[in-house]
Specification:
The protein is mainly alpha-helical. It is about 85% helix and about 0% strand. It is built from eight helices and two strands; from the N terminus they run αααβαααβαα. The protein has a two-stranded antiparallel ribbon. α1 packs parallel to α6 and α5 (about 145-175) packs antiparallel against α6. The longest helix has about 55 residues, at about 1-55. It is globular, with a radius of gyration of 21 Å.
């Protein structure tokens, strides 16, 4: 009788552990999704706040100055969401000057991201799935926007996006799922936030976002390898700058 009772107790304890683990995973996923949605909504709201006086003043929204202003306003929303979460939870996001080994890893990751992006874009274009971009009209009107975007990427976009998606979201997922699943999950959410960057058929838009997710996984793996947010920030910034300046050279 005692052995049966002990067995029942162990079964209940095992079931409780499984239930607790499942609940913990569900909570982590919910937090990651919630942060992404909150970032999108807040970014949209801060962009609208900036856009209102622009429209009232009758300024050209395709001018580089206004376009960059809208971009920076949206990035402010992303940063606010990440900063509030870190403040409320005490999540640690390590940042330091990269050492020689980390500098090598940053260089390798940047090259890998660029080669991967060019390869995937080539394949997608050959399949007729390449999406349009929301900045095409503005770039056609003034190609100098690409230079401004390169600068903004290094100084603002890369630091804020890496802070939110690698430092905060990936950091939150890692504590529950481990590094591999955390990198994949944060990368997919990173890609999903960029769905609005593309135009055209739905298939092309989704493919574009998935391409961003793949590149995001490179930055996520770099963050896990170095344990230093500065590493993916630098890789992301240089990656964006090379693409924008390359496009400007062609334009």
């Amino acid at each position: 009788m005692s052995s049966i009772t002990d067995s029942d107790t162990l079964d209940r304890e095992d079931a409780q552990r499984v239930s607790t683990r499942t609940a913990g995973r569900g909570r982590a996923v919910a937090v990651a999704l919630g942060l992404t949605v909150a970032a999108f909504v807040t970014s949209l709201a801060t962009g609208i706040v900036f856009a209102i006086p622009v429209f009232l003043a009758g300024l050209d929204v395709q001018s580089p100055l206004v376009f960059i202003g809208l971009l920076l306003a949206g990035q402010l929303g992303l940063f606010a969401v990440g900063a509030v979460y870190v403040w409320r939870t005490g999540l640690r996001v390590p940042v330091a000057v990269p050492d020689a080994r980390q500098a090598r890893d940053i260089l390798l990751a940047t090259v890998l991201a660029l080669v991967t992006a060019v390869g995937l874009i080539t394949v997608v274009s050959a399949l007729g799935l390449a999406p349009g971009s929301v900045i095409e009209g503005a770039v056609t009107a003034d190609p100098r926007l690409l230079v401004a975007l390169a600068v903004a990427s290094v100084l603002v976009v890369a630091p804020i996006e890496e802070f939110l998606f690698r430092g905060v979201i990936q950091g939150r997922l890692r504590g529950t799922f481990g590094p591999v699943a955390a990198v994949a999950g944060a990368a997919l959410l990173f890609g999903s936030l960029h769905l609005t960057n593309y135009t055209g058929a739905l298939a092309g838009v989704v493919v574009g976002a998935l391409l961003i997710a793949v590149i995001g996984s490179v930055f996520g793996a770099l963050y896990e390898r170095t344990g230093n947010l500065a590493a993916p920030v630098l890789a992301h910034g240089v990656y964006n700058a090379v693409l924008f300046l390359g496009s400007y050279a062609v334009a």
